[in-house]
Amino acid sequence: MSAFDDDVLSDLPSIYADAGDPVDYEGSGFTASAVLAIKDNSFEVYDQDQVAMRVATFSVQTADVPTSRQGDRIITPSRTWTVQEILEDDGFARRLWVS
Question: Which domain of life is it from (predicted)?
């Protein structure tokens, strides 16, 4: 890891505070309120046939949401989202495909 990576990881909580919105997270055996999450409406993923598609995702800090599974719910003021799949998890942040 470079010094830049270390700087970014150490500043991750303030990045989320500036860019994220508070949501409620309901998982199997885990519930949290006012979790900061960053929503991306057009994250590119590939299906099993390697066809690109755009999906909605939420990124959350693993310190706030220690575990995630398919079927967990993310509740925003306007809608409830269901976790379909974990797309990325680097130990600090987790990107969740939601619908």
Answer: Bacteria
β-bridge mates for residue 56, sequence order: 98
Q: Which residue bears the tokens 């150490």?
A: 10
Pair of tokens at residue 91: 């130990």
Q: What is the pLDDT of residues 25-79, one digit of tens each?
A: 999 878 999 998 999 999 999 989 999 999 999 999 999 999 999 999 999 999 9
Tokens (6 digits) for 95: 């990107």
Q: Taking the mean position of all CA atoms in its chain, how far away is CA 32?
A: 14
Structural domains in the chain, sorted by start? 3-98 (2.40.10)
